[in-house]
Amino acid sequence: MDSVSDYYSATQLRADRWSALREAVTSLCREQNAKKAASIKVRVADLFSSLALIEPYWAFPGMSAFDHMRRQFEHGNFDDLSFTVNRVKRALTSGAYRRRSIPLDRDSTDDEEHNDEALLSPEARAMARPYFEVLIVDNVNDQQERWLKSNVARMRRPEDPFHYEAVVVPSLEDALIAVLFNHNIQAIVVRPGLALKSKNENEILGKYITNASETGEIEAMLPEDYGPELCRLIARVRPELDAYLVTERSVEDIAGLDLGICRRVFYNQEDFMELHLNILRGVAARNKTPFFTALVEYSKQPTGVFHAMPISRGKSITRSHWIQDMGAFYGPNIFLAETSATSGGLDSLLEPQGPIKEAQELASRAFGSKQTFFATNGTSTCNKIVVQAVVRPGDIVLVDRDCHKSHHYGMVLAGAEVVYLDSYPLNEYSMYGAVPLKEIKHQLLALKAAGKLHRVRMLLLTNCTFDGLVYNVERVMEECLAIKPDLVFLWDEAWFAFARFSPTYRQRTGMRTANNLRVRLRTEAHKRAYEAQQLELADATDETLLNTRLIAPPDARIRVYATQSTHKTLTSLRQGSMIHINDQDFKGEVEQSFHEAYMTHTSTSPNYQIIASLDVGRRQVELEGFEFVQRQIEAAMSMRKAISSHPQLQKYFKVLTAGDMIPEQHRQSGVTSYFDNDQGWTDMWDCWEQDDFVLDATRVTLAVGGTGWDGDTFKTKILMDKYGIQINKTSRNTVLFMTNIGTTRSSVAYLIEVLVEIANELDDLLDDASKMERISFDRRVKNLTETYPPLPDFSRFHDAFRPDHVTPEGDIRTAYYLSYEETNCDYLELDGSLQEALDAGQEVVSAGFIIPYPPGFPILVPGQVVSQEILAFMLALDVSEIHGYRPDLGLRVFTPEALAALPKAKSLQATAK
């Protein structure tokens, strides 16, 4: 029997245990050798014992059926047991139990082959009633449990839009395990008889309780408080669910309590029909897709089109003799739903009053924001909208230097004075990490000392980075607010939209942190802690402030914006994105400017299919985001384990761990890896709760230098061209594999097969290599794994674009537009005239953005001085794609005359004299 430490999650454990049970029982039916049969029986008994800890939290097959299977085994009815186990496993794998009753006895007339889920058409699947499970928490005996379930079942009607089954657990701890384990649960009924402790003891189940609850606080509670406390705890871990509290306490007692996700309280009554209707209504509220539904209804209407868009209703295609293939490929519905009309049940994205407005409000609820806005041309546009809405010309903005290029262009458009923040370098892998909090605080304190803090408007950071580094969002915001209490935060969560739907990940999202801080800053405990720290830091130096975990003032303003590429990590058509806002000053200060910025960057003809996909994508994650994200993380963890533990792959590949990508001083938990060959899985919760930076487990960075191929060659020539495996991020010696909510275990298995095949081919190649070929291979490997160019920091803005020599902010807008005049610019060759100019001590200033892929962000921006380190890095780059650089001409730079003519340059020169 494998140890549970071999499994990242209990869901994975359950699936594999059922597979193992099916194989073992099938073998038992065939085995003629008594000794071997006895050995198999021991394994079957062990598997039943293992599953007995897990099955009480699921409605299918249910404990009654499970106990029946155990009795079949104990009585030696192995053929009947094999039949039953096979049916259960097949139904669990296909999801058939969600759509129909699965008879588990041989006498059933059910034709399993005829009802094979794989044979169902998409239309048939779409017409099926969605299935979910309701968790009832009450400490009852078997007879009372059957009574509860039968009463719930009697309420179901043919006209109900959904179908559900009940799961009964006895305690608060069991309920926490169930909601963190069983992704089918959509509603919880908390009855007054629940106990506190679970009788289930298992290390992989026990971690769910540890991560979800403050055990000491709960144990001190009175039993009548268990129900309300459970509602509150579930709100922490799965806020999308609905809870219904059945209580014997008075209205007055309940009214003052925090009931978390509780939608309704039932007072000492057994009104099962009312409960049933509330459960259906709650799920229907999340299942609602106002704009998608409106668009579907519009597509069914007979309409005469006398406005723009010949493709509307598909007329220009169906009447064509030459583009019928397009209509055949996409089908009719996409064209029937294509329109530029904003009436007839539809809405305007620019001034939403109907279904789009409602869809955005539902998205706001789902993602925990105060306002949410849809975008149909990507997060690049979302970033520019937020920056233009919040930042005024001359405002100082602290910007993560290796952020997405849209932020740099946003600074140009807004006319911001930019202070670029340097991330820690990972020279060995030719990539940057993230910006240490000390660096941010250092720049804020320097601006404060220079009397410029009032001009500081925004801090802009990427969370998580392309390579998967995630900030301690709450700590960053609180310590920055301690220095600048009205600072605006823009968290670029383009690659992190899925994080809202994982209890572990959610705590490091912008919206969750904003909501937490809004509550915590108002508490008396926080006020006392702040006042005590202010007394301690009365005469503190900047060095002391840098090394102290600062506490934000109680009156700090929580002003948070998050931009998300829904299409990158959730279900949405390409370019579907969202802007989430949690800004206490939005209504009074930003709303009008946000509206204008939104108008500036949003098309007057937005794609309705993208908007509809955002609406449906929100519905999906509210109802099954927890399941999908959990499976996504499981897939990545399986990939980590498979590569790290495979002896053949270890020769040429290495999975980069948190220890490789995050310096030790930023890992307070001491966790270096999520998986260790000797110890198994590490609990992610500790590091995600404590560390300055954590590594998103869904991104697996693979060092490939040991193959002798650089990252770009390995991606293009090997993975994509030869095996059809698509990735889009490499560094000089790494490739990045990103799992998503659509990644399957089969996809992971295929990748491992490919990597093993590559490793075997390399073995064969080296076995047959001549001496010179082996020397050449070793040199390539050494060049990729031991010889690497150091990554350059941001140098500085030229004096012509700086207000003074005191602080580093620069006027990127002036530099950007100065380059529009051709006479202001010249070209210098990297290994010729540019090197000569730097050797001669001349200041060479970039006239544009220089963005090599990889790493995919500007290593030079307009107005930045070219340093020897930057030149050395550019000379060492062996990538084929560098935006802004002309290989035939060289690097575009400003002429000395253009720089000298600028007013700021003359002013600074006079000051210096």
UniProtKB/TrEMBL annotation:
The keyword Transferase applies. It comes from Litoreibacter halocynthiae. Signal peptide: none annotated. PANTHER family: AMINO ACID AMINOTRANSFERASE (PTHR42832), BLR3474 PROTEIN (PTHR42832:SF4). One of its GO terms (molecular function) is transaminase activity. Residues 289-527, 559-745 form the Orn/Lys/Arg decarboxylases family 1 pyridoxal-P attachment site domain. This is Arginine decarboxylase. Its cofactor is pyridoxal 5'-phosphate. InterPro entries: LL-DAP_aminotransferase (IPR050881), Orn/Lys/Arg_deCO2ase_major_dom (IPR000310), Prn/Lys/Arg_de-COase_C_sf (IPR036633), PyrdxlP-dep_Trfase (IPR015424), PyrdxlP-dep_Trfase_major (IPR015421), PyrdxlP-dep_Trfase_small (IPR015422). It comes from the Bacteria.
